[in-house]
Amino acid sequence: MCGTQQITYKGKLIFYMDFSHCSKAVDIKKVINESLPFIRSQPPATVLTLSDITGMSFTQEIKDLFNEFIEGNKPFIKASAVTGLNGLQLIFNGLLRVTHREINSFNTDTEAKEWLVSQ
Asked: How many CB atoms sit inside 10 A of residue 8's CB?
């Protein structure tokens, strides 16, 4: 919980961000700060990302952190997927409108990874 890792799925690298059950802004910042050096050092439009936000808390501070993070990553991302939305769909949709990003949501990590590697 609350960390990152690089995973290989069907021969493709996916950058996995685990925000699950992160309830404090400091935990969210930790994951974001772990993510930035990798994502922003990659060539434009090449990074596949998967984020798990199961049980994550959303405050205005956390929403602001995500807005900045998602917007700043935009040039580097080829495709992004998220799992664990459940009751957070409205907040998630708001983030997508503000950042002008396309991030697809899935019920399971496997569904998300299958979609990512097909991009």
From this structure: 9
CA 64 to chain centre: 14
- Alpha-carbon torsion, ordered 20, 104, 74, 109, to 10 deg: 40
Structure tokens at 85: 């939305």
Counting beta carbons within 10 angstroms of the beta carbon of residue 53, is it exposed (0 to 12), middle (13 to 18) or buried (19 or more)?
buried
What token pair was written down for 32?
A: 């974001």
12 close to 48: Cβ distance less than 8 angstroms: yes
Residue spans per domain, the chain:
3-117
Measured N-to-C along each axis, helices 60-73 and 25-39 cross at an angle, to the nearest 10 degrees, of 0
SS3 call for 96: helix
Q: Is this prediction's pTM over 0.70? A: yes
Location of structure tokens 């580097």: 76
Encode pLDDT of 43-52 as tens digits. Answer: 999 999 999 9
Name the CATH architecture for the domain at 3-117.
Answer: 2-Layer Sandwich (3.30)
Q: Which two tokens stand for residue 96?
A: 């997508």
